[in-house]
Design goal:
168 residues; alpha+beta; eight-stranded antiparallel beta sheet; 8 strands; 18% helix; globular; DUF5680 domain-containing protein
Length: 168
């Protein structure tokens, strides 16, 4: 049984600790499971909290999906889901955008900042994170992140839709 004294700020702190060791910072996951064929898993444990980030990519497309769940004493307390598509060449910029919020411990839908650029390495690309109004807290959030080509009339090149909720 989970103690009554679980605070959302503690769950959020664990989210960022896990993210510091996750896909955006350390690279791709190597763990797999027969319970989730085609998924790669990243696990993290901190005291009474455990985190699982699981994602899959269809090898015949550039589409991907995944989820992150946080447990306290084996009881789920928070979850998020994401899905969309990114061309392989966009992944380095996506990781940099995600890292920006991980490093600063800024929660914007569990993804990157509202806007992010790296003009030196990716001069024509801009990452944009559109969080749904009224769904902007760690306890309830939803949105869509996109990477656009500003050199080509802001053509969208990739996106992920995401949503999540505290289970406390």
């Amino acid at each position: 049984m989970v103690e009554n004294k679980i605070y959302p700020k503690d769950v959020e702190a664990v989210f960022f600790k896990a993210a510091e060791r996750g896909w955006a910072v350390t690279g791709t996951a190597t763990e797999t499971s027969t319970l989730l064929p085609g998924y790669k898993l990243i696990r993290f444990k901190s005291g009474k909290f455990s985190v699982l980030d699981a994602y899959c990519v269809n090898p015949a497309s550039d589409k991907s999906a995944g989820f992150t769940t946080i447990w306290c004493d084996d009881v789920p307390v928070w979850t998020m889901h994401y899905s969309g598509r990114y061309q392989k060449r966009l992944i380095p910029l996506l990781k940099l955008a995600l890292q920006a919020n991980i490093i600063s411990r800024t929660f914007v839908g569990g993804r990157g900042p509202t806007t992010f650029t790296d003009e030196e390495r990716y001069p024509d690309l801009v990452y944009i994170n559109n969080v749904v109004r009224g769904r902007r807290t760690f306890s309830s959030f939803a949105g869509r992140e996109i990477i656009v080509d500003v050199g080509n009339l802001n053509l969208p090149l990739g996106y992920h839709d995401y949503r999540g909720i505290s289970l406390l």
